[in-house]
Write a structure and sequence with these properties.
about 425 residues, 2 domains, two-stranded antiparallel sheet, disordered N terminus, disordered C terminus, phosphatidate phosphatase activity, membrane
């Protein structure tokens, strides 16, 4: 069964491409030079946009705070502030914004780079790194715009503000919003005595959490990438330690976001908003760079700008490769030309077994189907038992007579790659 987003098969037998046939002549340096030039031609617009987006995020964050917010100030008989939600002490941040940005990019890129020792795919590494940067920078731009236009008080705001409500009656009330509301307890930053305008602005831009946004934008992207490369949720039962490894990015993002409640740098709702923004952006960007998100047949395949990936016919040269796990046919190099009749994850691949994961992806869970266009069905392959409609039960594939073996009990079993 085809993925729900690509159910209708294409009429043409193969993927559409706009790239020219690669030139193989020349020295290694010349071939490398041509490859680098072609990569720049394909990617320069995205890289330029990425740089512009990053610069825009920094520039917007430096602009003056746009909103005018009120905060409550009331005192008891001793002169103490009664409303404590903004009266926490300013303890400094456990993780600074710059360090957070470094951790959210360097660690995932390092993991992706180490994995390439086994995956050995330039386009996978290219899509993974650029996708991670897209996710982090796009999420940062999104949250910075909200910070500047909406914002919110940090729990330690009054510690930074050092308010003096007497200023409201001595000419510091240009907005007319000081000493207003119920019992006239609401004031603005016009009554703050701290001369550091940068610190005041930072104390008023708590919503949403930038730490949470970048952490989840980076580590959720890494989570999706690791799931695709490890095939944790696939057509076989993955090892427990892969599941544990897959949870590591989620744990890292959660710790990085939640630690800001310890030093009272953020309110809980600031963090929740950042989590939602980062997660949504990560999912969007991953699907931009890879053929699927959850569909285990395709989610490891990096997409190309100048080549259409055909979900109906598949691409046998990448369906089995570009993954980290090496198990039950996954992660094995394609041998013996185009294969059909079986698929990835259905036993040990053999030379000349005519088993292609593209056919498996096309058929869903069965390996018995029409061979790729231009190929002839092997002798004896069409003779299959009838089950009411002349087709095998769903999920069952019958072996070829020439490859079946007798088990001594009157039953025949085919090779592993022909059985589901």
């Amino acid at each position: 069964m085809l993925p729900f987003h690509r159910r209708e098969a294409r009429a043409e037998p193969g993927p559409v491409t706009t790239e020219k046939a690669p030139r193989t002549e020349g020295t290694k340096f010349q071939r490398l030079k041509r490859f680098v030039i072609s990569w720049i031609v394909l990617s320069w617009k995205d890289i330029l946009t990425l740089a512009i987006t990053g610069i825009a995020s920094l520039a917007i964050y430096q602009t003056p705070y746009a909103a005018t917010r009120n905060f409550p100030i009331t005192f008891d008989a001793s002169g103490d502030i009664v409303y404590p939600q903004f009266a926490y002490p300013s303890r400094g941040w456990i993780i600074s914004p710059s360090l957070s940005g470094v951790l959210d990019t360097v660690i995932p890129i390092g993991i992706m780079a180490l994995a390439q020792i086994r995956i050995r795919s330039f386009w996978d590494f290219n899509n993974a790194v650029l996708g991670l940067l897209y996710s982090v920078i796009l999420g940062s731009l999104f949250q910075v715009i909200i910070k500047q236009l909406i914002g919110g008080f940090r729990p330690y705001f009054l510690e930074i503000c050092q308010p003096d409500i007497s200023l409201a009656s001595s000419g510091h009330n240009t907005t007319g919003l000081n000493g207003v509301g119920f019992h006239q307890i609401m004031y603005t930053v016009e009554v703050c005595t701290n001369p550091d305008k940068g610190a005041l602005k930072n104390a008023m831009t708590s919503f949403p959490s930038g730490h949470a946004t970048t952490a989840f934008a980076g580590y959720i992207f890494l989570f999706l990438w690791m799931n695709a490369k490890l095939k944790v949720w696939s057509n076989f039962q993955a090892s427990y330690y892969w599941v544990a490894a897959l949870l590591a990015p989620l744990l890292g993002a959660t710790l990085m976001a939640a630690c800001l409640t310890i030093d009272q740098a953020h309110n809980w709702y600031d963090i929740c908003a950042g989590v939602v923004i980062g997660t949504v952006v990560a999912f969007m960007v991953y699907r931009l760079n890879y053929a699927a998100i959850w569909d285990w047949r395709y989610n490891h395949i990096p997409l190309r700008k100048n080549r259409v990936f055909d979900y109906a016919f598949g691409a046998p040269e990448v369906m089995e490769r570009a993954v980290f796990v090496k198990k039950l046919g996954w992660g094995k190099k394609r041998r013996g030309g185009r294969r059909w009749g079986g698929g990835v994850g259905k036993g040990k691949a053999r030379v000349g077994s005519n088993a292609s994961s593209a056919t498996y992806a096309r058929n869903g869970s069965t390996s018995m189907d029409v061979p790729p266009q231009g190929q002839v069905m092997p002798q004896g392959h069409g003779a299959m038992p009838h089950h009411g409609h002349g087709m095998p039960p769903q999920g069952v594939a019958y072996p070829e007579p020439t490859t079946a073996r007798h088990n001594g009990g009157g039953q025949y079993y085919g090779r592993g790659e022909n059985m589901v």
